[in-house]
């Protein structure tokens, strides 16, 4: 499979590099930084959306799928970017947001004028006979999932921000239009696609209330019809190219369904993003809470998905960070006392698992959450809504702010830190979001004296060199250990034993004799001191080590 030995890098264009000093990252900025990206030796870049958008949800509210928003550049810039990346053997993956459009999209605007054809592009419903909203569904960004449809007395569905109207996938004309979008970009040299929240497209034709006490998301997420939609999407667009790499962002999904989405013989997707492992610091499943992460649960989830997907012939996308998550190093590592070591440990954990690893911009230099001092410094719509909701629910301003500070999506959206200047070398003018940690953490400093970037280079080259990493099976190891996540990869006569210490204290791992009878080599270790494979391995704080046994 073409994607098993690949490593994919995510760029959030708004925050990568600003070439024209308007405070917003752009396509020409990315072109300028291609040599840096090439140095990392990644295979492909997933770009968050840069299409025309009013930017209420940072570009995930698309008003025109066919045009590049002028804040990011022009189509000529895009074509040059694709060409430049191709010269460096880097592929392009575009983000397709096909569950909803901006309410400024031409389709929604035509629907508002009374065009029945376009009204059927969305979920537009009458209120209940008693005047209540069509259903009791809630938006993922807070409040009701229904908003007034002009002055018609009807409502339209928006599972996300109120200016993101959900598309009606039951309408074959909607699906045809969306496949045209994918093919338009495919014809411009884009072979790979990431599909945003694609498994919430499977809503029923008749929308009904969810039963209080049950998970409301299950009524519209991961339903059987999503498989049909994905088969059709594959057949109508990228499926003509067996080398195309695709990933679906799957909300509230299951191992069983994710196997089906990604089994090659089903002709749906190459792999899936799932988020269960990133909810282990949610108190009682609630995101807007502040609680230490549950290490046992983290291990269980990673192990369950590795085993389940492997046994069923499915494929995982592996990641800790993206534009929707606070930095993993703040959640699962120690950014103050062990920034380098915990960054490297987290990277090792993911890169040596079975699946395709993703690196989010800045992860390779150990970027951390910003040190904002007031709610005014945040811009993310979900964050601002959550802050108001926390206050309304009885939290003090300080309590609400502490939660926001640990969970906001803005944490990972701060500009990429290229140097230690006021605006982090991202721009010469005030950036759209303020950087705060660039004095200590920046590309220039990392490349001249750091160790995280070169560690990532090593992990990437190992995946390309050793088939046991890209192709091997997965088995759990010492699942009961209180501070170590260990696992074993196997291929033919080779065994790879990986040990990751998730805590800032030394610990010991007992290794069974079956691993001690053959020759071993240490393929990676984030400490310089020599380490041997013995019956008792001592791991330093946040140490990761991988032994190749053959």
From TrEMBL:
The gene is treC. Keywords: Glycosidase, Hydrolase. GO terms for cellular component: cytoplasm. Residues 10-413 form the Glycosyl hydrolase family 13 catalytic domain. NCBIfam families: PRK10933.1, trehalose_treC. Belongs to the glycosyl hydrolase 13 family. One of its GO terms (molecular function) is alpha-amylase activity. Transmembrane segments: none annotated. Its EC number is 3.2.1.93. It is an enzyme of class 3 (hydrolase). It comes from Pediococcus stilesii. The keyword Zinc does not apply. GO terms for biological process: trehalose catabolic process. This is Alpha,alpha-phosphotrehalase.
